What does this fold into?
Amino acid sequence: MVSILAIKPDFISNNLAKSLGFRSNINAVVFVALGFLFIMTYYQSSIIDLLEKQMTELVRRIALEKQEEIDNLKDQLKSEKKSSTTNSSNKESASKTLTD
It folds into this structure.
């Protein structure tokens, strides 16, 4: 549209002004440009909202996965501590039995 307006500005802007009911062709061009900018702003805003929702979902998913990994490591450490405590208790009782 802009390139056509640049090639034949009077023809396009006069026809645009007549079709929209403006007296001045400059006012019609400015009106259409502002409308186009408004539509583009709305479109970009909706795309940004969509991207923010996707990013929020991704961050939540990553946080949950990392928390699961942390919980698994904690469980492993607890089980290792229990098994080492049990092994040391068994060794102490075995050494007491041998000494008696």
